Amino acid sequence: MSPSLTLVLLVGVLVACGVTLILERSLSRILVGFVLLGNAVNILLLLVSGPAGAPPIVGLSDDEMADPLPQAMALTAIVITLGTTAFGLALAYRAWQLRGTDDVQDDVEDDLIRRRAERDEVSSTFEEAAPGAVLDEEGADQ
Fold first, then answer.
1. Rounded-to-10 torsion of CA 16, 19, 22, 25
2. pLDDT at residue 37 greater than cutoff 70
3. Is 45 helix (H, G, I), strand (E, B) or coil?
4. pTM to 2 decimals?
5. I need a labelling partner for 127 at 20 to 30 A (CA). Which of 39, 51, 60, 108 fits?
6. How would DSSP label each residue in 74-86?
């Protein structure tokens, strides 16, 4: 049995839309992106599971049994998507309470590091090693 072209295209569209939404700044759009990706994974698991078969109970039928692993993986994906959605909703609600918006702001420290790197400056806490010094795994003198 070959997979339906419609379902394959649906998975591709859902993944593309989900990734695009995850790259946005709004937490609500990020949340919708995670939901779309979760649905795409479930449809993909349905596609790769193969043809339908008899229940996977030995002795119940002489027909070929269905593989229970994709069913278990789909259930796991549903639970993970539900947990991620609940966490994202709580995060967006809390951000809305504190700031009145659910947009993710830039980190001030990351911006300072980026500007310092563009000017080719070093941090005030940077200590250059003495010539010939042996450094340990963390970069400190031994």
1. -70
2. yes
3. helix
4. 0.69
5. 108
6. HHHHHHHHHHHHH
Contacts of 109 (CB under 8 A, 6+ apart): none
User: Alpha helices, DSSP H only, in the chain?
Assistant: 5-22, 27-48, 68-99, 108-118
* Residue 5 to residue 132: CA distance in whole angstroms: 64
113/121 Cα distance (integer angstroms) = 9
What would the mean pLDDT of 48-77 be, rounded to a whole number? 82
Angle between the N-to-C axes of helices 5-22 and 27-48, in degrees from 0 to 180, rounded to the nearest 10: 160
List the Cα angle 11/14/19 in 5-degree steps. Answer: 125
- C-alpha pair distances (Å), 63 with each of 45, 50, 53, 72: 22, 15, 7, 21
23 Rama class: left (phi>0) / alpha (psi -120 to 50) / beta: alpha
- C-alpha 121/C-alpha 136 separation (Å) is 24
Percent of the chain with pLDDT over 70: 85
Read off the pLDDT of residues 47-57 as tens digits, 9 standing for 90 and up: 888 777 777 77
Structure tokens of 72? 């278990």
The C-alpha R_g of the chain, in whole angstroms, comes to 25
